[in-house]
């Protein structure tokens, strides 16, 4: 699980061009949206594509995304449970 | 019709032209196939959160535009007009490569949104919260000239008082290498590196002290050497200017076989100093905006940096400058400036 969290942080920084962040700056429980990393709706779409492409998880219910993308810890739990890749 | 003046000019280029009060004092010798621009510290002009999705052209354009407005003491322009030959080619390449490598699946929105040519003009407007006229011209080597022509018409017809206009292009990563290969197949190709840059101007219908006037401009897509000479004669005649009254001719020479057009134009102006600039800026579709920036600085400072000189005819005062540019024997443009 620690490895997966590390991998997610690296992917998020790279794919969303979060130049000002390093992996060490993102705590497992930090909010990804709003006051945390400050991600927005376009980032949410990027994350949905990432889930599908890299882990074989297709999100069909947008409301589900609100819960899953709460933090790295929540996202890692969800991926570990549902991943097909 | 109202007159048109250039209030400010800012350039980001392969040279140190942005973060300096000097005027081409330290020349970076550019060589090789492609040369990137000398990027400024974008953080001084663009918030981190906004810049993370911006490609090179957008960052250069937004930064140059922001400084041009600052230098003209203008908060909100009456129009934002941009010219770009290749637009946001970086994101276009990224998006197209993703389509191929992912077999048309898993396409993310950012490169698609940012790959359109009008992204630069749109981001400038978003940053300023400016809802005024906003247009982008994509017309190869006449892209910047088309934008400038639109700005000139808006001001002349009193549809605005201050217009932000600029030319911007980025190198990208792949297509430029194929273009370079084609150029290098024989010795008649372009002899300067391909490059990138953004030059922005505030043009206005209100004359300030020591204002630089954009007297007139003319564009033409195709012309033989003979037709070019006819066009040039007609352009000077229309503006009631004799060839000897041109103090400086700025030509867009890039060393390729089509430089004969510049020789042809140059033969009109035996007493004028002739300058070139693409050995400093590199070649790109909107490189002529770097030429206009140089012309503005020369008229303002009454000083010609030595590296620009192609043929020197000493002049005590520089009052009238003619810019002539073409690309591969097409997309000819004349721009006439006066102090």
Q: Report the uncertain regions of chain A.
A: none
What is the residue-averaged pLDDT of chain B? 95
Helix content of chain B: 25-40%
- How can the largest sheet of chain B be summarized? 11 strands, mixed
* Helix-strand topology string of chain B: EHHEHHHEHEHEEHEHEHHEEE
| Poorly predicted tracts of residues of chain B | none
CATH topological fold name of chain A:
Non-ribosomal Peptide Synthetase Peptidyl Carrier Protein, Chain A
Second rung of CATH, namely the architecture of the largest domain in chain B:
3-Layer(aba) Sandwich
> Which CATH class of chain A is shown?
Mainly Alpha
Residues in helix, % of chain A = 55-70%
Give the termini separation of chain B: 19 Å
What is the CATH top level name of the largest domain in chain B? Alpha Beta
CATH superfamily annotation of chain A:
ACP-like
Number of helices of chain A: 4
């Amino acid at each position: 699980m620690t490895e997966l969290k590390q991998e997610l942080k690296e992917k998020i920084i790279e794919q969303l061009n979060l130049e000002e962040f390093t992996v060490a700056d993102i705590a497992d429980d930090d909010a990804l949206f709003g006051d945390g990393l400050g991600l927005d709706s376009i980032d949410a779409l990027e994350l949905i594509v990432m889930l599908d492409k890299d882990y074989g998880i297709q999100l069909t219910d947008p409301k589900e995304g609100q819960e899953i993308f709460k933090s790295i810890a929540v996202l890692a739990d969800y991926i570990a449970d549902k991943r097909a890749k | 019709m109202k007159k048109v003046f250039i209030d400010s000019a800012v350039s980001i280029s392969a040279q140190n032209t942005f973060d300096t009060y000097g005027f081409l004092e330290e020349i970076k010798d550019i060589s090789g196939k492609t040369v990137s621009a000398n990027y400024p510290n974008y953080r001084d002009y663009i918030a981190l959160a906004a810049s993370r999705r911006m490609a090179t052209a957008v960052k250069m354009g937004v930064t140059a535009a922001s400084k041009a407005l600052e230098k003209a003491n203008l908060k909100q322009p009456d129009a934002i007009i941009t010219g770009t030959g290749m637009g946001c080619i970086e994101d276009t390449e990224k998006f197209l490569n993703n389509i191929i490598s992912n077999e048309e699946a898993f396409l993310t929105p950012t490169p698609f949104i940012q790959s359109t040519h009008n992204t630069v003009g749109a981001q400038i407007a978003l940053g300023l919260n400016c809802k005024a006229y906003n247009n982008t011209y994509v017309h190869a080597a006449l892209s910047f000239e088309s934008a400038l022509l639109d700005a000139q018409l808006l001001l002349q017809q009193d549809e605005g008082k201050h217009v932000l206009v600029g030319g911007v292009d980025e190198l990208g990563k792949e297509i430029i290498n194929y273009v370079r290969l084609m150029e290098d197949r024989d010795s008649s190709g372009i002899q300067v590196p391909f490059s990138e840059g953004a030059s922005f101007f505030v043009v206005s219908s209100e004359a300030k002290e020591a204002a630089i006037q954009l007297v007139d401009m003319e564009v033409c897509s195709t012309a033989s050497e003979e037709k070019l000479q006819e066009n040039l004669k007609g352009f000077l005649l229309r503006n009631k200017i004799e060839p000897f009254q041109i103090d400086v001719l700025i030509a867009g020479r890039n060393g390729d076989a089509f430089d004969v057009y510049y020789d042809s134009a140059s033969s009109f102006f035996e007493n004028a100093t002739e300058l070139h600039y693409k050995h400093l800026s590199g070649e790109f579709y909107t490189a002529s905006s770097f030429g206009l920036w140089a012309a503005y600085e020369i008229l303002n400072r009454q000083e010609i940096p030595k590296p620009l000189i192609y043929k020197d005819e000493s002049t005590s005062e520089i009052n009238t400058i003619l810019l002539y540019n073409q690309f591969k024997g097409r997309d000819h443009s004349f721009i006439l400036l006066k102090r």
